[in-house]
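Human: You know discrete backbone vocabularies at least as well as I do. Show me how you would write down a chain together with its backbone fold. No explanation is needed for now; the record alone will do.

Assistant:
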Amino acid sequence: MKNLIYLLGVFLFCSCLGAKKIVEQKSFKNIKHSKEFTKDSTNITVKTSPIRDSIITPVVSSGNPHTDRKIDEILSKLNTQKRSGSSGYKQYYDNQNRELITSFSIEGSQNKIVTSTRNEDTQKTDEQKTEEYIFKKVILIPWWVYALLGFWFSPQILTRFKMFSNLFKKN
């Protein structure tokens, strides 16, 4: 009998009611990378004005009309000109004024200076969400405890059952 009580005590203490706390965590990590490129350009245009210029060289008289005529004849054959695009020069002799005329024509130019800079901006954004669920899990009474209790209290249960059944038989 002592062994039976000892065994019953061990079973009861080994299967005591208890609560177990369970914590469940879920983490979500969201990382966003973004790059932003900016490009700055600077245009500088330098324009020069066209140049129109003339050089007039007077031819001096030698005092001898025959020599002056020969000089005029040789210089009147001098008629040179050259063009390159919009620029050029021309050289000729004017007999009436006795002048050697050189004309220059240089068109305006246009220079463009383009400066470009590129900037890169990088951003990193971390976003972390943590969800936490806490619940308690209760361990139920094992089935064999109910069987033992029923067996233990069976004499009292049977007497009560007989008492109720006798009430119904008399009527």
Q: What stands out?
A: The longest helix spans residues 154-170.
